[in-house]
Amino acid sequence: CSGPSMEPTIQNSDIVFSENLSRHFYCIRKGDIVIVKSPNDPKSNICKRVIGLEGDKVCTSNPSDFLKSHSYVPKGHVWLEGDNLRNSTDSRCYGPVPYGLIRGRICFKIWPLNDFGFLRASPNGHRFLDD
């Protein structure tokens, strides 16, 4: 993962471990961090957190927007956002992402050693809607 979009959870120099079986068995859940083929550039991968699964209601506006807008994630898609909402190009820009673009799920951080282990929960947990 490179770039600032997943800070503070994943820093630019961190090394993470990912697996790709979850995507095949449709075991991706809200809150998981996934590696996805970029909807904007199919030659590159992006790293984002799953905020919504098909049928979920999600907030489609930016945190600073006065009026909040909501939408439902269509069948066969996920809603992805970076943990660094102010510096992330994600589903708020390009919309829901087809499930088929998911390449893997990040399980834990390997480097730096002092931060080794499972990844922390989303700093934006309030954006997960349950209705």
From TrEMBL:
Location in the cell reads:
Mitochondrion inner membrane
Main location class: mitochondrion
Give residue ranges for domain Peptidase S26: 3-62, 68-111
- What EC number(s) has UniProt assigned to this enzyme? 3.4.21.-
Q: What class of enzyme is it?
A: hydrolase
Gene Ontology BP terms: protein processing involved in protein targeting to mitochondrion; signal peptide processing
What are the recorded GO MF terms, alphabetically?
serine-type endopeptidase activity
Q: A Gene Ontology CC term for this entry?
A: mitochondrial inner membrane peptidase complex
Which top-level group of life is the source organism from?
Answer: Eukaryota
Query: Family per UniProt?
Result: Belongs to the peptidase S26 family. IMP1 subfamily.
Q: How does it assemble?
A: Heterodimer of 2 subunits, IMMPL1 and IMMPL2.
Designated name of the protein:
Mitochondrial inner membrane protease subunit
Q: What is the organism field in this record?
A: Fregata magnificens (Magnificent frigatebird)
Organism classification: Eukaryota, Metazoa, Chordata, Craniata, Vertebrata
